[in-house]
Amino acid sequence: MKTLNNLKPGQSGVVQSITAEGALKRHFLDMGITKGVVVTMERIAPFGDPVAVRLRGYSLSLRRTEAKKIVLEEQA
């Protein structure tokens, strides 16, 4: 299972599912992280947390623990 956390800067993936529940899942949906959306890893902070991703034309910062809850489709 590949998650958003596994991407390196410049790599992209398509959201397959969100494993978070409750308020965190609602928060992801409110930010536009939905199934089928293309997400690109922009950069990783010097100590590894947080990470900056780009989706739907804007940048978003996420904690590594949050990024692990976003499952990406496997690329062939």
Give me the side-by-side strand order of the main sheet. 1-6-2-3-4-5
How many beta-strand elements?
A: 6
N-to-C SSE series?
Answer: EEHEEEHE
Strand content: 35-45%
The low-confidence runs, each spanning 5 or more residues with pLDDT under 50, are none
Give the overall silhouette. globular
Helix/strand/pairing category = alpha+beta
Number of helices: 2
Rg calculated over all Cα atoms? 11 Å
Mean pLDDT reading: 91
Indicate the percent of residues in helices. 10-25%
Q: Main sheet?
A: 6 strands, antiparallel
What is the terminal-to-terminal distance?
Answer: 13 Å
Describe the structure.
Strand 3 (38-44) and strand 4 (51-55) form a beta hairpin. The mean pLDDT is 91. The longest helix is centred in the middle third of the chain and has 9 residues, at 22-30. This protein has 2 helices and 6 strands, in the order E-E-H-E-E-E-H-E. With 76 residues, it is an alpha+beta fold. The protein has helices at 22-30, 64-67; strands spanning 2-3, 12-18, 38-44, 51-55, 58-62, 70-72. Strands 1-6-2-3-4-5 form a 6-stranded antiparallel beta sheet.
Ordered list of secondary-structure elements with their pairings:
Layout: E1 2-3, E2 12-18, H1 22-30, E3 38-44, E4 51-55, E5 58-62, H2 64-67, E6 70-72
Antiparallel strand pairs: 1-6, 2-3, 2-6, 3-4, 4-5
